[in-house]
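Dear colleagues,

As part of the handover before I leave the project, I'm documenting each prediction I ran so the next person doesn't have to rerun anything. This entry is a single chain, and its sequence is reproduced below.
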Amino acid sequence: MISNSNHIHSITNVYMNSIDKSVVKNDAAGETSNAGDEILLSSESQEFSSYLNKLRDMPEVRTGIVDNYRDLINNNKYRINTDELSEKILNGSLL
């Protein structure tokens, strides 16, 4: 899976925004927090955290693939199949 830190950051923001909204709802209901409160994470949030940690451990750049394409380009051997590219563009599968 190719991902970058911006993508991980945006996923984390979505998750954190959903948590912030639930806190606002609890505050609006008149619930008060005590210093001894506990945070219990749902199984979904624990699973999300596990996946997020795995993503963080993955390299941002797959250097083997980058090096391969760099060599092809530098040796003037990289060729683009224009028929295949145009088909993907027309079918919207390139996005």
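DSSP finds four helices and no strands in the chain. Residues 1-60 form one domain.

All the best with the project,
I.
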